[in-house]
UniProtKB/TrEMBL annotation:
Keyword Amino-acid biosynthesis: yes
EC number: 6.3.4.5
Pathway(s) per entry: Amino-acid biosynthesis; L-arginine biosynthesis; L-arginine from L-ornithine and carbamoyl phosphate: step 2/3
Protein's recorded name: argininosuccinate synthase
Natural source organism: Forsythia ovata
Lineage of origin: Eukaryota, Viridiplantae, Streptophyta, Embryophyta, Tracheophyta
Length: 305
């Protein structure tokens, strides 16, 4: 950038007043002509967090992709970004993976042992794979996540300590917090609703694709045509992922206690262990014989028959 060209420092958040003190001076000292403060939480959650939630994207079984989801927002319009949907910590004592994280690192959650002794139940309403309500109250995307962060935080939910493979090939250790986010409360709800609605083959393909989806997001390739294509697939298969899930939050744990959907493929009259008109357990005998045929043929071959 030429010296004559104006530059902006853009802070994307709804900060507390004390957090703004001295910020304009710092921005101008860094060469910016002015400081712009704008709350883009709704856009961030709606356009970046929720697509990852719908896909079920997790990098290397643990990482929630919070900072990775922020990168495309930065690429769109900002020079400085601070998003209070996830806290993460690297370096210092964490550089030794044998060290336990300090308790004062955590900003959003209490130690599970200090959480309330009584569980709390939350009911999450979901439409087409995306959460729209909490305990019967319709909320905006950012409000859903914000309230669940608060609820989950007081029950000690959402702490993650992991060693991850960086894009450049090295390993690093980080500690993350996201009580209400895409790996904890919301992800648990979305997965349970999918268990009612998606058939076996669709769930299997989704599990396979989401590994690559998460890798693309982690690598900063949000605008890659491949991710866009996979996003279209995720959107299509979750068109009927509508219903509600009830979860019990207790001392760091998230347990599902109920799920319901008008599109549920679960039928009690079929799934019952008792004999019924739709499903006759005697039919299983023929299926088992046919299903095991390849293994019987292989056994015959190995025995020389």
């Amino acid at each position: 950038m030429k010296e004559s060209e104006p530059s902006l420092a853009f802070l994307k958040e709804e900060p507390r007043i004390q957090e703004l003190e001295g910020l304009e001076q710092k921005a101008k000292a860094s060469g910016a002509s002015q400081l712009v403060v704008k709350d883009l939480n709704e856009e961030f959650v709606r356009n970046f967090v929720f697509p990852c939630l719908r896909a079920g994207a997790i990098y290397e079984r643990k990482y929630l992709l919070g900072t990775s989801m922020a990168r495309p927002v930065i690429a769109n319009r900002v020079d400085l970004v601070r998003l209070l949907k996830l806290f993460f910590y690297i370096g210092d004592i964490l550089e030794d993976p044998a060290n336990e994280p300090k308790e004062d690192m955590y900003m959003m959650s209490v130690d599970p042992k200090d959480a309330p002794n009584q569980p709390e139940y939350v009911k999450i309403g979901i439409v087409e794979g995306l959460p729209i309500s909490l305990n019967g109250k319709e909320l905006s995307p950012a409000s859903v996540l914000s309230e669940l962060n608060e609820v989950g935080g007081r029950h000690g939910i959402g702490r993650i300590d992991m060693v991850e493979n960086r894009l450049v090939g090295m390993k690093s250790r980080g500690v993350y917090e996201t009580p209400g986010g895409s790996r904890t409360i919301l992800l648990a709800a979305a997965r349970e609703l999918e268990s009612l609605i998606l058939d076996h083959e669709t769930m299997q393909i989704k599990v396979i694709l989401v590994l690559k989806y998460a890798e693309l997001v982690y690598a900063g390739r949000w605008f890659d045509p491949l991710r866009h294509s996979m996003d279209a697939f995720m959107k299509e298969i979750t068109k009927t992922t509508t219903g509600s899930v009830t979860l019990k939050l207790y001392k760091g744990s998230v347990n599902v206690t109920g799920r319901e959907s008008p599109y549920s493929l679960y039928r009690e009259d079929i799934s019952s262990f008792e004999s019924g008109q739709i499903y006759d357990q005697a039919d299983a005998a023929g299926f088992i014989r046919l299903y095991g045929l390849p293994m019987r043929v292989r056994a015959m071959l190995e025995k020389g028959h």
